[in-house]
Amino acid sequence: WRGFLNDIKSTDVVVKDQWEFQMHARVLEKVGQDHLFFITDGISLEDMKKIYINPAPVGSGQVEKSVQDFLNKAQEQGKSVAVIPEGPYCAPLA
What we know:
The chain is mainly alpha-helical.
């Protein structure tokens, strides 16, 4: 992701929808890969690892419970959480 940011800074060429991964990379710059988690049942664990996130495995139909469990644990630890419910604000998979 750092290479991606360097590449787009060094050229005027814009690739359609590059902003999606650019926003994802900006989050990585701020919080680091160790603190970025995805809770979804729509992306495989293997694919999530390719986009520099910590996958939070979820059983089919269990997304809401997994999100609630994650939020409860974060609150107990005094951590902040940002929620991005819209797919286009996350990294695209080719």
